[in-house]
Amino acid sequence: MSLPRPSARVKTSIADGISWLREHAIYNKAVVGGRNTPEGRHLIDQQGAGPLWARFYSLDTEKPIFGDRDKTLHDDMNEISLERRNGYAWFNTAPAAALSEYDRWKLSENAKQ
Length: 113
Known about the structure:
Blueprint: H1 8-24, E1 29-32, E2 42-45, E3 53-54, E4 66-67, E5 73-74, H2 82-87, E6 91-92, H3 95-106, H4 109-112
Antiparallel strand pairs: 1-2, 3-6, 4-5
Helix pairs in contact: 1-3
């Protein structure tokens, strides 16, 4: 979005990426707890929470996936070992900034050209 004169293909790619982020935003879930709590970090249902995005997604299902030290994959963060839940940032909110930037960009001359 910082290119001075993005091509039509670049604009389409940006729009497609933003659409993917919007479709995969996770609402009403929160990561709570911490390293020094008995349950460690874990994902809970929390009305009004989010958006969050998982660090990794399955290419087949497009749903979040979580890997454990024993090389197993899980579709629920709460199923992996305490050490892995506490030692890695499985969810983040960083894509929210890209969504906000896109909304501003869409109004700019670069997006309209």
